[in-house]
Design goal:
This protein is an all-alpha fold. The protein contains 14 helices and no strands.
Length: about 375
Amino acid sequence: MASPEPSATRPVVRTVLIVVAFALSLYLIYLLRTPIGWLLIAAFLAVALSGPVDALDRRMRRGFAIAIVYLGLLIVPVALGWLIVPPLVTEGNHLADKAPDYARDVSTFVNENERLRRLNEDYDITTKLTEEASKLPGKLGGAAGTLRDLGLGVVNSVFALVTILILAAFMLGSAQRWIQSGLRYLPEDRAGRLERVLRRSSAAISNYVAGALAQATIAGVLSYIVLRILGVPFAAPLAVIIFFLDLIPLIGATIGAFVVGIVTLFTNFPTATIAWAIWSIVYQQVENNLIQPQIQKRAVNINPFLVVVSVLFGSALLGVLGAVVAVPVAASLQIAAREYADYRGIEPREPPQEELTEGELAEQEPPPEEAPPDEAPPEEKSPEE
């Protein structure tokens, strides 16, 4: 029996090697998923900070510009912590001390309402609520232990944060030079297209981050004004919480409104709660239909359906961080796809004539040619001539 020819076994061997190499690559990515995630976060942070760094770079050395931007970036969480933590601790202790009084008020309100009184007689809600409220001050020690464990977790994450900031600083300082050095190894046409994709993607990410910050700032400032009008305590920390939650696409504003709504239950209920619910519903409609579409149109120019899908995929892969970076990543992929289609000469077909509107048909029809002016008939010569 004749052995198979080497030329016949080469495709099989090549296929097996490709599958093995692909599997090993996936396994290697899985092992390095943590540093790869840090690199992606650092790249996103570098692109987001490139705008202010480039603006300062025109007036000073780039190293000083990066240092100033980083100093501002580090001051923000310190200032927010100083603004949020003390009021939350004070009001938390105040809430724990007043919890029995609030429980008694709820019991009085339930007893004065016939329907609620019947439900209370069936399920004994107020008694259980009073018992739990009386236990709340004693549970502060357990809450302190939880906060201590949370603090240890934050301390353990400091190394990751410092590493990400250092990687982002290197990217801000040398990424452009690295890109230009790498593009020299590609053909001129392909290098130009790749550089154009990177430039447009960077602009889309920077514009999206600036637009998201502007949108969250509007939500935080307006919420602070409404909370002050309603007399809700620690309005400033709550406005800051709304600012950060509003950065999460689709669901962030709803979560922030729900958190503040719980706080209003303990201050001037039900007036403040009803007023806050009405305000939240109205503002979210304005934000979803007016503010956010304008930001997405100017920043990333991406279809709303793709926004929803990208946020769902990003949140499933990376949680809250994935939801935040999903839209600019989708915009970058869209830019790359358009550039690839242009490179391959892929163009959409013209729609059939029956699907065109009257305006589109009028644009496609050539303008009617002007008739040449009537020529005067030649003069008849007289017989004398």
